[in-house]
Design goal:
Layout (H helix, E strand, L loop, with lengths): L1 H8 L10 H108 L5
């Protein structure tokens, strides 16, 4: 069957061969060429696979780095929000302290005024002649 299939495939040129040996040599050369081409294809495929594995590794590393970066950004965002809350609390405390300081200042002014009035009353009492 093999020879018949080859004969059928090469029918137009079959008569050009003077012997079976020439055809056999041609088939061997063709087979050797096909084997070399297959070996080259296997080598190219192997290199392609290696490059694809390297590319997948790089993509995985980049993805991991991106996730780590994203987590760091989320951590920074949380820290910023916490700092903002602390700042707002400090600002509220400062306003309350300012209000308390203003009240204390008013109380001190009132106490000073009362002290002056008392001192003046005391002076007035000392200067006044006493009747018996």
């Amino acid at each position: 069957m093999g020879a018949q299939a080859v004969k059928k495939y090469f029918t137009p040129k079959w008569e050009e061969f003077s012997s079976h040996d020439e055809l056999e040599d041609l088939l061997e050369a063709s087979l050797a060429s096909a084997i070399r081409a297959s070996a080259i294809q296997m080598k190219v495929l192997s290199e392609f696979r290696t490059r694809m594995q390297e590319q997948r590794r790089r993509v995985a590393e980049a993805s991991k780095a991106d996730k780590e970066h994203q987590q760091a950004l989320e951590g920074l965002k949380a820290a910023l929000e916490s700092a903002q809350v602390a700042y707002n609390q400090m600002e509220a405390d400062l306003k309350e302290s300012d209000s308390n300081l203003l009240n204390l200042t008013k109380q001190l002014d009132n106490a000073n005024a009362a002290q002056r009035v008392a001192a003046e009353a005391l002076e007035a009492a000392k200067v006044r002649p006493q009747f018996s």
